[in-house]
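Standup notes
- DV: blocked on the single-chain target, sequence here:
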Amino acid sequence: MEDLIKEIYDNKMEKSKWNRTDYEIEKEIRDLLQHEEEHLPPQEYEKRRDKMYQAAFAGKEKGFAEGFRYGVRLTAECFIQKEDRGES
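- DV (later): unblocked, structure below
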């Protein structure tokens, strides 16, 4: 199932190159690093920025997978409850 969720996520990301969440992540990283840029050598700043992006987008992907699994469980639960009540 993990492979299927990853494939769905990758396809979703391919179709929507940039979305509101990505914009908010970028803004948050810029805000967090605002003062660091002034005090760090450019290469060190870029390393920190890149690591923050990696962590943020890895978290975004993990969050998508968790949300997807939760949605599937919730849907299955609804169908089970519907069957238990004898609804069609």
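- Follow-up: DSSP finds four helices and no strands in the chain.
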